[in-house]
User: What shape does this take?
Amino acid sequence: MAETDADRRARLDALEAKLAEKRAPEMAEKRHQDEHHSQVQMGWRMVTELVAGLGIGFGMGYGLDMVFDTAPWLMIVMTLFGFAAGINVMLRTAREFAPDNSGKDEKD
Assistant: This one.
């Protein structure tokens, strides 16, 4: 007996439905703490963010000092801004990895 296009389409739709059912748990969005990041990885990420902020601030300040001949004042100010930016990014990362506080209202 020959298979018709309608039969093929029905089989294909059934197969797609089964595949979608199997893929649904895999495609669910995972939170960072569900991915089992180790504490060391999180710590190194935060240290790297702080050092990057300091380095960028220092580099910008040094460059501006060379351009405007204000050494070392802009380097000091921009390094402090870089430090503040690094701390801000570190706190955001810590909040990202923190468990949910469902009983508290967060204002972002």
